[in-house]
Design a protein that fits this description.
This protein is α+β, with helices and mostly antiparallel strands. It has one domain: endopeptidase fold (from Nostoc punctiforme) (Alpha-Beta Complex), CATH 3.90.1720. Helix content is 28%, strand content 27%. The chain is built from five helices and ten strands, in the order βαββαααβββββαββ. The strands form three sheets. The chain has a six-stranded antiparallel sheet. Strand 6 and strand 7 form a beta hairpin. Helix 1 packs across helix 2. The N and C termini lie close together (10 Å).
Length: 144
């Protein structure tokens, strides 16, 4: 079993990891999916599925909720309002679009995420992000 605070601590160890599309190595490079996959592996000791190659516009091109479906296979689905520290939140970057961005909640209105052109960062989960929440998930084996 792992606590929410343990997940927050693990997620913060990824801060500063350079952005690298399809990467999932702490300190070397990751994208938002790679960040979640890497934290998952650190806390569970298991590797989630390896995603197929994907382009930056994969969600729009496929027109499917691929990210939500993959998260549902490995994480525990929550309502967006019950997500808390250590939980994964998926976002729609524009209204009506497929969910294609992920972050890990840290508590106190903050999250850690990776996005193109930046290293993994801790940011305020302000209104812009709040309105774009599409789904939330908990890592398996989490205690409160």
């Amino acid at each position: 079993m792992i606590s929410r605070l343990d997940i927050v601590a693990v997620a913060r160890t990824w801060i500063g990891t350079p952005y690298h599309h399809q990467g999932a190595l702490r300190g070397v490079g990751c994208d938002c999916l790679g960040l979640v996959r890497g934290v998952y592996q650190q806390i569970t000791g298991k590797s989630p599925e390896t995603p197929p190659p994907y382009t930056p516009d994969w969600a729009e091109a496929a027109g499917e909720e691929t990210l939500i479906a993959a998260a549902s296979r490995h994480l525990i689905k929550l309502s967006v309002d019950e997500a808390g520290p250590g939980d994964v939140v998926l976002f729609r970057l524009s209204p009506g679009a497929m969910a294609k961005h992920a972050g890990i909640l840290l508590g106190q209105g903050r999250m850690v995420h990776a996005y193109s052109g930046r290293a993994v960062v801790e940011v305020h989960l302000g209104p812009w992000w709040w309105r774009r929440r599409a789904a939330s998930f908990r890592f398996p084996g989490v205690t409160d």
